[in-house]
Automatic annotation (TrEMBL):
<protein>
    <submittedName>
        <fullName>Peptide-methionine (S)-S-oxide reductase</fullName>
        <ecNumber>1.8.4.11</ecNumber>
    </submittedName>
</protein>
<keyword id="KW-0560">Oxidoreductase</keyword>
<dbReference type="GO" id="GO:0008113">
    <property type="term" value="F:peptide-methionine (S)-S-oxide reductase activity"/>
</dbReference>
Length: 41
């Protein structure tokens, strides 16, 4: 999601679910996503 937030699948399926989770658990959300496979800079 962090790399392709505008991809149609993400916009239709994943983004609404994440927004719902943010509303249910606002204390568990971070302003920046934690990327698991981030390449070293």
């Amino acid at each position: 999601m962090a790399q392709h937030p505008g991809h149609p699948y993400i916009a239709v399926n994943d983004a609404p679910k994440l927004e719902a989770l943010k509303q249910l658990f606002p204390e568990r959300t971070a302003p920046q996503p934690v990327l698991v496979n981030r390449s070293p800079a």
